[in-house]
Structure formats: C-alpha cells, structure tokens
C-alpha cells in the first residue's frame, strides 16, 4: 500500500505540475484581462511548433511561434528572415501580446518589433496573426498582407488554420439514446448467446433455438390475453347468446366447435 502510494505520488505531482504550467504563459499580455488569458490558453496545442511561410515577394520568409522564440531571437514571436543575408528582423515580441477570441477564431497581436526604417513614422513593427478554426490536421500558415504605406498603425497580417480554436461540439447522443443503445446491445448479446447455447449445448431445432423459447411464447400469449382483456370492448367469449344468431357465423357450426374444444378438457 505504502509502496504504491510512493510510486503514484510523483506521477500525480507531475500531472498537476504539467497542467498548471501553460507554455502560453510565456506570452505577456499588454492588458492583463481574463478573457485574453483564456484566448491565449486556447493556443496551448500550437506551442513548441515553428510555422514558416514565404513572403509575397519571395525574398523574405516569416517564422512564427506561439509564445516562444521564433528563429532563436529572444522574445520575438514573429520574425522576418531575409533569404540572401539570413538577416532577421523582429516583427513582434510575444512579451507584448494581445489575444482576442471569437466563436471559432483567435486574433493574436505581437507588438514592439523593430522600428521601421523609413515607413510608418518609424514606429515599431507589429504582427497580427488570425488563427481560424479548421478541421484539417495540417496547420496552414500564410502571410496575408504587409500594410506599411501609411503614417501610423502599420501591421503585418498572417493567417493560421488550426483545430485548436474550433468550438467544442457537444456530444450529439443524449443520455436517453445511449441508454437505448446499451439495451439494444444487451438484447443482441442475449439473443445470439442464447441462440448458440440452445443450438450447440441443448441441441434445439427450429424456433426452439431462441433462448427461453417456452417462457417467451408463454409471455407472448399472456401479453396477447392481457391486451385482449384490456383493449377489446366486446370479447368473443362474453358475447351474449342472443347475438350469436345475428353474427356472421352460421348458427349450426358454432356449438359443434365449442364442444370439440371442451372434449379434451
Ligand atoms: C516545449 O519546449 C520547452 C523548451 O524547449 C520544453 O521545456 C518543453 O518540455 C516542451 N514541451 C513540450 C510539450 O514539448
Ligand atoms: C522586444 O524584445 C527585445 C529582446 O528582449 C527587447 O530588447 C525589446 O526592447 C523588446 N521590445 C519591446 C517594445 O518591448
């Protein structure tokens, strides 16, 4: 008992430890709101992965990580890489993050990048990454546009398809239908099991191969009787004798039939 507790305890600590430490907590939110924190935690499955894409002009590529150093550049979540000189330009720091969440998307901002040289009043670069729900297992990362032909509010916009931000679809099966499925399964097991038992071990033939044939046929009769009693307003047996003559059956035939029936009893 003690031994098993000792072996389980570290595992438990490990599990709770892993659960508590979100890699996305490496990102620092500009405004520390609960909803932005939740949006960020949705991206947890995307951490420890590097996403790369070609720029529009083909002479740059972009490297993106969720709350991790992209291209090995400290605190940079998104960097631009020059194809020729291998020079890295910081587009945004994950230490300056915003995360906005919709029904099936998260918009991630990395701000505080390297200042523009000439464009955009030499303000810091910033990246916006639109992460949308996709059921495809492939995470498709693309650059959408580099909006830098204005005085301020310039940005680099990217898109990433991922199942991480898809809304959780509740199980379509209600408790009732699950119960019904279980009952049907039990019934199937009962019938096939009973059938095999009757056939192979008891050696029954024909309809008698059905499990508990005698019981079920009796049960069927009883049910029919019960239904007859409950549902029929005028039972044949209780029919007053005066009616018999008016019925469809010829008068002479019926008493004979009744007598035949009584004989064996
Ligand atoms: C993610 O990367 C960090 C740093 O390299 C590492 O400590 C951590 O174990 C990794 N996590 C997973 C789930 O791979
Ligand atoms: C971005 O991160 C780098 C590296 O830590 C740092 O030098 C720079 O000041 C940061 N930028 C902003 C705006 O915080």
UniProtKB/TrEMBL annotation:
Main location: membrane
Domain of life: Eukaryota
A Gene Ontology biological process term: protein targeting to lysosome
Pfam families named in the record: Man-6-P_recep
TM helices/strands, residue ranges: 173-197
Compartments, as annotated in UniProt: Endomembrane system; Lysosome membrane
Membrane topology reported for the UniProt record: Single-pass type I membrane protein; Single-pass membrane protein
An MF annotation (GO) of this entry: protein domain specific binding
Record bears the keyword Glycosyltransferase: no
Domain MRH: 25-168
GO cellular component term, pick one: trans-Golgi network
Mitochondrion keyword on record: no
Keywords, alphabetical: Disulfide bond, Glycoprotein, Lysosome, Membrane, Phosphoprotein, Receptor, Signal, Transmembrane, Transmembrane helix, Transport
Range of residues in the leader sequence: 1-20
SUPFAM superfamilies per UniProt: Mannose 6-phosphate receptor domain
Disordered: region residues: 238-265
Record's function text: Transport of phosphorylated lysosomal enzymes from the Golgi complex and the cell surface to lysosomes. Lysosomal enzymes bearing phosphomannosyl residues bind specifically to mannose-6-phosphate receptors in the Golgi apparatus and the resulting receptor-ligand complex is transported to an acidic prelyosomal compartment where the low pH mediates the dissociation of the complex.
Name under which the protein is recorded: Cation-dependent mannose-6-phosphate receptor
């Amino acid at each position: 008992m003690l031994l098993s507790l000792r072996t389980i305890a570290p595992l438990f600590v490990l599990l709770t430890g892993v659960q508590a430490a979100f890699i996305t907590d490496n990102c620092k939110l500009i405004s520390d709101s609960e909803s932005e924190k939740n949006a960020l935690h949705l991206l947890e499955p995307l951490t420890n992965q590097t996403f790369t894409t070609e720029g529009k002009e083909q002479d740059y590529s972009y490297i993106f990580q969720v709350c991790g150093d992209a291209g090995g550049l400290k605190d940079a979540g998104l960097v631009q890489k020059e194809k020729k000189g291998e020079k890295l330009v910081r587009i945004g720091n994950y230490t300056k993050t915003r995360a906005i969440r919709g029904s099936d998307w998260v918009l991630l901002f990395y701000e505080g990048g390297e200042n523009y040289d000439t464009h955009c009043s030499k303000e810091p670069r910033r990246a916006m990454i639109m992460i949308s729900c996709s059921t495809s297992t492939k995470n498709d990362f693309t650059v959408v546009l580099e909006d830098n032909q204005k005085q301020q509010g310039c940005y680099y916009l990217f898109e990433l398809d991922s199942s991480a931000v898809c809304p959780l679809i509740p199980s379509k099966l209600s408790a009732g239908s699950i119960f019904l499925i279980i009952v049907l399964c039990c019934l199937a097991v009962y019938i096939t099991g009973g059938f095999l038992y009757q056939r192979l071990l008891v050696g029954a033939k024909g309809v008698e191969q059905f499990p508990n044939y005698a019981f079920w046929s009796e049960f069927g009769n009883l049910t029919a009787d019960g239904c007859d009693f409950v549902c029929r307003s005028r039972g044949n047996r209780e029919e007053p004798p005066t009616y018999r003559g008016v019925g469809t059956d010829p008068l002479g035939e019926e008493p004979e039939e009744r007598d035949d029936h009584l004989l064996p009893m």
